[in-house]
Amino acid sequence: MSLDLTVPLGLAWFAAIGLAFFDGRRAWAGWAAVAALATTLLGTVAVAVDVAHSGPRSVVAGGWPTTIGITLEADALGLTFALLSLSVLLVALTYEVVAGVQARGFPALVLAMATGLLGLCLTADLFNFYVFFEIAMVSAYVLTGYGDRPHQLRAATIFLIVNLLGSVLFLIAIAALYHLTGTLDMEQLAIRIPIVQTNPAILSATLIFVAFGIKLGLFPFHFWLAAVYTGTRPAVAAILSGALVNIGSYGLLRIGGGLLPRELEQGAPVLFALGAASILYGGLQAISCGDPREVLAYSSIGQAGYILVCLAIGGEAGYAAAVLFAVTNAINKTLLFLVVPLRGPWVAAAVTVGAASVAGIPPAAGFFGKAAVFRSTVADGNPAILTLLVAGSALSFIYMFQMVGRQDWATGDGVGPIWSDSHLPATRIIAGGVAVVVIGLGLWPEPLLVLSDAAATALIGRLP
Amino acid sequence: MLAVPFSLLLFVSNGTLATSGNTMDGGWQFNPAASLLALAVLSGPLTWLVGRWRPGLAWVAGALLAGGGLTTTIVAIATGDSGVDVAWAPSWGLRLAFDLDGLARLYALLATGIGLLVVIYARRYVPLHLHHQGRDEREAGPFFAAFLLFMGAMLGLVMARDLIALFVFWDVTALASYLLISYDRQDANARASALMALLVTGISALGLLVAALLIEDRYGTFDLGAVIAAAEAGDHSLGLTTGILIVSAALAKSAQLPFHFWLPRAMAAPTPVSAYLHSAAMVAAGVFLIGRFYPLLATEPRLLDGLAVVGAGSMAISGVLATTRADIKQVLAYSTISQYGYVVLMLGLGGQGHYGAVAAVFYVVAHALAKTALFLTAGAVTEATGERRLDRMGGLWRSMPALAAGSGAAAAGLAALPLTVGFFKDELFFAAALERGPAAVAVAVGGATLTIVYIGRFWGGIFLGPRRATADPVPLALVGPVVVLGAAILLTGVVPGPVARLAEAAAAVSLREAMTVSPAYHLDTRPENLMALASFVLGGTLLATRRFWSPAAMGLARIGQRFGPARAYGRGLDGFERFSGAMRRVEVRDLRGRVATILLPAGVLVIIALIATPTRDAFSFGTIQRGDAGLVMILIATCGAGIASTLPRDHLSMALTVSGVGYCLAVTYALFGAPDVALVAVLVETMFALLFLGMLSLLPRRVLAEEAAEPENHHHGRRDAALAVIAGVIALVVSWSALSRPTFRESVAVDYIELAPDAHARDVVTVILTDFRGLDTMGEITVIGIAMLGIAGLLRRGRLR
Asked: How far is B50 from chain A (nearest CA, A)?
């Protein structure tokens, strides 16, 4: 029996709408949201199992012929990012429900974001991608202000304005591509874009790159990132850095690698340059940060550079490395943002695990992310980039372990006033669980490797 | 408690794990490699859990695990090679391939044997240490956990045949040493030292990772055995770069010049950690790595020469520095660097003769026994007297005779006196040097002399001479291991055969051929004996005349402090910190700046894209006909409204000019033959204009006036104008470029018009919105709903909170 791929999407969507009418601060509403999200995740897993056995599945909305209606398609690439995003959201939501939800709309917003992220991973229509992207982004704008402190609202304002700018650029590019090809269906787009003259195609590609660069927090489009990640509550920071950031990596892969491979190849020197700048910039900035959240924010800027370098390398190996790195990075950041406000012996262990994973020290999962990037660079035969990656990795050693050493995580002596309201044992258990997952995936990386290879194959296989 | 699950782990079925060595037909049988692998993975976590459960039992768990490992290793030495080989990550061709060969057995014996002794020692030492620092005794748990993690990592490392698995354990040793060195976490010096150790060994390890990947790229496998076989078949040479990366990682781990500076700093760790780090674990791992990769490294003779040079340099410089240190642990630290300099030198010499490789492993064993004993002595002495400086001790042999005897044997072993195992380590060393000519002989004698000097000073300074400190009695557990080690040194000094057999088996792995050495005492004038005699005489003389040459040695130490790599490290780290701080000060922090940093680079990228692609015929202007007059006029009006919208300062005029632009565009649509779109645009514009006005009327006048008069919003006028131009140009270039192309001939728009009747509607726009692309519409409605939910959160009773 196979599950229709619209079922999980619809489930999250209706649950979001339904929960919007209730006060999310009540425990039952929070747990209902957790249950709905968990069911969505399970449904997506079921779809993924089915896709793994019998290949990609698609459905056209309204039962129209393919190019007329909106096509939803589940393939390995989309499902990988969907599963990742939903898992991160589930963890962050559970964490916040356990710690005590403080705003009426929180559970509904998380589900709305789940809808957006799941939808954009499953759609095969460029404009529909934009719509789901908007759903996720609007939820993120509101979530950033969650907590209602002045600095959180200020962060939300920055986030909103900068990212809306990115959305407008994306929209202009979509309009241009539609004009040029007469279709919004990704499969048709991939076939028709090569026929189009290079100039308009590469200009649209540039705008799309900028739009996703902003989402990913790539240098020099990153200036919103530190203020936002540092200002928000831990669960929201985890959502932004673990789930929302996937829009950037997935978008670059799906649209850059899937629709505009020629333009991506032409832009490779720029991607290498910006990736290099991002890696060095993020790494160097992170060194002098006193606040662990700020370290993590700048670290994210550096990690975005790795994904870009993988894209520039391209090919199956490059894309697989990009997926693997994006996945491990999202998990690392989720773990660390959730764990840094806590204290205790388990917390000390979890922080060390997270730091090791970001620095790429085995047996944490981050090691395989780093190794995959290195490996694709070695196969590409590019010593300059390899040296740069090693330098970036060295920087991550410095800032991560300076961060670990600055505070006494086990007992909490000399700790600044970071969210002291979330010291509940259950939040520590959740964070510890994520740490166990990080170690588990480091010890047995095969699922990650299979998933990222399948994702890259799905992406390459789509190319005409 | 642990014994039951653990004994289950020790026995692994033939069916599940491939075993090599003495297999019986089917059935269950003991596979030492598999059980050591289980130990390697589980030791740390198990000890941690026990420590969380009952902190007082952590050491018991540690001792049981180390003892289990030791027993297994001894069994393995008796039974021969065994191995494990199961798939790990087939996507990358990774296997959990572990061989308990001669090399692995030797290092495993050191890791578990010395590990066990150190755990027993630490059982008493750590609670005392915590007590001195006013810390809770329950913190002993994490200590033993990190220690056993360290031991486990060593076990995994020495057995690994898969390069990635090898790297995993290699890095875990760095992580474990970080945890152990920073164990006194309230001590800033300990934290800085731990960071230094991690950075030096961890960052150099990246070279090993890159080397592993380069090897895979070249040979197509991560399996070291297959790689060596391919290299021997003459398929490929290793490549100098790869070799340098491997050797650098190994030298950093073994604290050789110029990476040596982390090791003396690592003395901030509790003494049992130092003992382990210096003998059986960290520094031994580096030399082990060279031994493991030896068949590959030997394909590049320049690498071996480089090793010899680095080894000789480390041996000489650290040897001199060791004579200048006052802190007893510092003396031992520099001694370790110097002694490993010997080992590296011997490995480098081994390229032509064969003695080098055997001598090196023999040396590692002899050194490990002696150095552990000496560190444990240092810990016990400091515990008894509260002193760490040589010039504040002396004459302690009276109050601590057993300790003096045990450590005396160890010191004699290190100094290579006869009747200790150390004598043979130097005999083999001299033999290796003799194979390579007079220069090597001179270096060897010099090194042996230096050893005698600093170890003589160390031991004599503590136990002989006038009594300068009072010694409290120390627990037996702090003395026992030293005595055991001292006895072992003397015993193997009389019966060196077993150590020699171990070394032969280990060297056979490195050299890929069987080797035999027969260390024995010969009462004749063979060159080795003469060299030993020369070093005794020279050493004794130097020791007696220390007053005359020590200023020169101190001078060298001062030069090292001023220009050495430790200072470069410190400056580098400070430099990074300062540079980073300076960068952060110039980061953009205001909103307009943030918008600018998006638009400006986007503009640059668009320009790059324009330059990089052919623009001939890309931008066409089209023709203007008489009938287009109205269109042109309204477009001019649109532009005018657009520019006008940037001028006003008060909010009301801004809102009105912006909606003016919208209305102008609506007229454009109407003139373009899209009246329905125009209608929608007018509706939307009207709605937004009303919304703006309503919003502005809700906000207090005063706030708006202040905001409008805010100089901050105006003094960036030029920048803002430039950005506005950039934004306009981006939009213009992209849309012009796209619109210069005709619409694609098979547009979906044609299909929409064709299919509209099927959707039971006459109006295409309606069908698109409600049916063809109904999902989009539903999504956009959701977007509005979410935005409302967000706004509702900001409002209370209809007003902004």
From this structure: 14
